Every structure is written in structure tokens, then in C-alpha cells.
Amino acid sequence: MRKILIVLSFIPLLISCSHYQKVLKSTDYELKYTTAMEYYEKEDYMRAATLLNELQGVYRGTDKSETINYTYASCLYGLDDYIMAGHYYRQFVKTFPASKLNEECQYMSGLCYYMQSPKPRLDQTETYSAIQEFQLFVNLYPSSTKVKEANRLMDELRDKLVYKSYLGAKLYFDLGDYMGNNYQSAVIAAQNSLKEFPDTKYREELSFLILESKYIQAEKSVIEKKEDRMRETIDEYFSFINEFPASDYMKKAVKIYNDASKSINFVESN
After folding, report:
1. CATH number of the domain that 245 lies in?
2. Into how many domains does the chain fold?
3. Per the domain annotation, does 149 fall within a domain?
């Protein structure tokens, strides 16, 4: 009985495969089109994409071309092939500039890059591309219901870029005096991040990294430069506490201030 049930359970699958193979070999393109759309509605993206790929050339320049190209791109997205899906969404916008589907295709182009955006430590080419595509979408369709989500995703992507920059600045900081003055490089990297992304959620971390780097650099300076650099550190301290009065780094910041003040007094007394 159990064997019979197993065999019976495979019958619909076998029928489905048989039907698909017949359609695939058929020269009835209308049948292929109808079947491809049925597979798409059932989220059978692999079969739908296979049929639609053939139909793109067959129906080029016809009324069905727009639907076929859009659906093919959507099948690729459904198959998690974000590279090719993004390519076809962008190609759709170029091929059908007057289409009502361009709004969605432009958004999906950004989303495909977003899905390819890697971890912060890796190359962020796709992240920049995603931001560019989403920004173009917002500029072209400012009244779209997807604008809010596009802006949210752009903020997320920008934070990733800032975090990568923070990791780079932190790496300089951790290298310390190894093969040069890496504290100054840490300061420059962190300052550049804040300049490019002033509203980042990592602003506090970057600001404290600048303060700490300036202090250590001042501490390691020759006597002729120490006082000026300690005063710079104190200026940085006041900027930091004014912006982040409840910072988790406050205890460390106060210690830096006290040590810098003592260092200045010591230099002046000598």
C-alpha cells in the first residue's frame, strides 16, 4: 500500500514533466507564451524563464515583447540570479522607454544591486551601484510608493560604506607606529567618512576614533610638537562632548582630556 501511494504521488510530477517537454519541443509559440505565463504565476521560474528566453527573439517588436522581457527579468530575480536580472531590468528601461513598467524596473535594478552588496570588509562596487540606481529611481519617480523604501535601503547601504571606512580607519589605528605614523592616517580616514556621510549612525565611533588618534599621536610627538598637538586634542575633546554628552566613550574621553591637560602643564613648566 505504501509503495502504491509513493507511485501515485509521482504521477502529477510525471504528467507535468511530460507536458513541459512537449511544450518545449513545440513550434506553437502562442502555446509556449501561454504556458510560460502559467509557470510564472505558479512561481515555477526555471521553466518559465526557459520558455521566455526563446520567446524574446520570436516576439521582438510585437505587442507581447514588453511583457515577455519584463517577465523574463522577474523570473531571473525569482531564481536569485541578481546579476542577470539586474541586467535585464536595465535593458528593459532602455528598450521600452515609454513603458508603465519602467518605474518598477528601475526600482528592481537597484534592488538587484542591493542583493549583491557584500559584507563591509569586501569590495563595495555593487553597493555604490545600488545607491546610484535607487537615487535615479527617487529622482525619476518622486511620487512612487516605493520611494520611502528606496531611501531606507540607501541609508542602509551608506551605513555599510561608512562602516567599511570605519574599519579602515580602525585598522590604521591598530597598526599604530608600524611603518610610519598610522594615527594621522586614522584621523584622515575618519574625517573623510564624516565629511562624506555626516548623518551616519557611526558618527560617534568615528568621532571618538579621531579624538583618541589625535591624543596618542600627540603623546608620541617630539617635545617641539607635543604642546600644539595636545591643545588640538583638547579642542577635539570639547567638540566630542558637545555633540555626544551621553556617550559610552565619555569615561575614556575625560581621561584623555585630563592626561592632555597635565601634559600641557608639564611642557609649559619646563
Report:
1. 1.25.40.10
2. 1
3. no
Residue 251 lies in a domain: yes
Per-residue pLDDT of the chain in tens (270 residues, 90 and over written 9): 554 444 444 345 444 567 898 988 988 999 999 999 999 999 999 999 999 999 999 999 999 999 999 999 999 999 999 999 999 999 999 999 999 999 999 999 999 999 999 999 999 999 999 999 999 999 999 999 999 999 999 999 999 999 999 999 999 999 988 877 899 999 999 999 999 889 888 999 999 999 999 999 999 988 888 889 999 999 999 999 999 999 999 999 999 999 999 988 765 555
DSSP one-letter string for the chain: -HHHHHHHHHHHHHHHHHHHHHHHH---HHHHHHHHHHHHHTT-HHHHHHHHHHHHHHTTTSTTHHHHHHHHHHHHHHTT-HHHHHHHHHHHHHH-TT-TTHHHHHHHHHHHHHHH---TTS--HHHHHHHHHHHHHHHH-TT-TTHHHHHHHHHHHHHHHHHHHHHHHHHHHHHTTTTS-HHHHHHHHHHHHHHH-TT-TTHHHHHHHHHHHHHHHHHTS-HHHHHHHHHHHHHHHHHHHHH-TT-TTHHHHHHHHHHHHHHHHHHHH-
Domain of 193, in residue numbers: 162-270
Q: Is residue 138 in a domain?
A: no
